[in-house]
Amino acid sequence: MRNIKLIIEFDGSNFCGWQRQPKGRTVQKVIETAIFKATGEEIMINGSSRTDAGVHAREMVANFLTNSSIPGDKFREAINTRLPEDVSIIKSEEVSEDFHARYSSKGKTYSYTIVNRYERLSLGHQYLYHYKYKLDINEMRRACEYFIGRHDFRAFMSPGSSIKTTTRTIQDLYIEQNGNEIKIFITADGFLYNMVRIIVGTLIKIGNGKLEAENIKDIIEEGNRKKAGMCVPPNGLILEKVFY
Amino acid sequence: MRNIKLIIEFDGSNFCGWQRQPKGRTVQKVIETAIFKATGEEIMINGSSRTDAGVHAREMVANFLTNSSIPGDKFREAINTRLPEDVSIIKSEEVSEDFHARYSSKGKTYSYTIVNRYERLSLGHQYLYHYKYKLDINEMRRACEYFIGRHDFRAFMSPGSSIKTTTRTIQDLYIEQNGNEIKIFITADGFLYNMVRIIVGTLIKIGNGKLEAENIKDIIEEGNRKKAGMCVPPNGLILEKVFY
């Protein structure tokens, strides 16, 4: 069988996340249905990440095995013409049979966008988290440094997943500011459940003065979820890129 | 009666436009309903523009007359708490009784955003117009100059509105480029029906080589709608600001 790799963009607003489930519209199911319509094959696709409901992706990666004769690069159009507007195949190609979107992944970059203004927000609300109290970006930037590196991030994880270790390496964490828009980029070799959203919630706790940048070191060492910040809503989160 | 001015932001994706109509969810009706809940008054609000379905606003202006005792600046919260997520009052204030959001307006700025890339687009599709063929931005920028000034813009108007004159003054028209995102800003003392969307469609016809910048002069003089470009979809359009 041939192994096809897909790069997928989607707007997660109207999805119950990536992973196929008995009820509810999911990205995985919508793509599998489109592939069935294109090839007649009932295949299962492997996604690089199981994004939650409301989370978006600029470059999610998936792969699937097929007996179809459609050339690798032609799957893009064949699937796209059968997809709803909120999911798009950006690229398709045939890859070696040992490629697995999830297990072959070496790391990922996510972004999270906050709009920091007093006034309520409607324009772009599916993609932005509105935070009304003034945030100190310089303190937040200083705090980023404490996250970078190989650490046990169990304080920044929601329960609900079975994993062997809570140690991960954050390669990069930085903030871009454009007017009242604050965009946080984070790259790691892997992420614990809700890890990005809890790190962002913790950065907000630093930005509003409830924590100091230096506290991050202690929270990581202590591993106490309660001392970290809240898990911010999914809509500000975008899976930007997956590395192999 | 007191006259209250509102500045309104809305995501037009799930609205049948601004203006109240017998059927369909409109921004005007949603705000009037919220005001009724806040004051008990069945009022009618005047909007600065009658935006079409799918068009968004960063700073739409409206006004209404009220006997309520709510202070001018407190209407914002009083209305916001009764509004759905896709409409927000950004500011409310009491103004002199001769202020009318539509008739007092001296001009408006709209923006229209195109994503110019071959790949299909899903992320942000409610706010962006996807155009897949390569656009020559320099030619489009050169064409902008021919639109600026006081002209008869009947070639850039859809039928369906009753107006006295088709002459308008475009004060400013320019393009910002950021990667594959092309953002067109246009400011005029007033706009004909679909004028912004037809001007954008005409700029696209220049960008893809079907027209030359110099042709704009002739199209304006001739006033022939058929020689101008298509009316691009509403979703890329944002009412940015109204001037008084």
Characterise this structure.
Two copies of one chain form a homodimer. Chain A has 244 residues and is an alpha+beta fold. Chain A is built from five helices and ten strands. Chain A has helices at 27-39, 75-80, 137-147, 195-207, 215-222; strands spanning 2-10, 46-47, 56-66, 87-95, 107-116, 129-131, 149-152, 167-178, 181-188, 237-243. In chain A, strands 1, 2, 3, 4, 5, 6, 7, 8, 9 and 10 form a ten-stranded mixed sheet that branches. The longest helix of chain A is centred in the N-terminal third of the chain and has 13 residues, at 27-39. The two termini of chain A are 22 Å apart. The interface between A and B is medium-sized, with 24 and 24 residues.
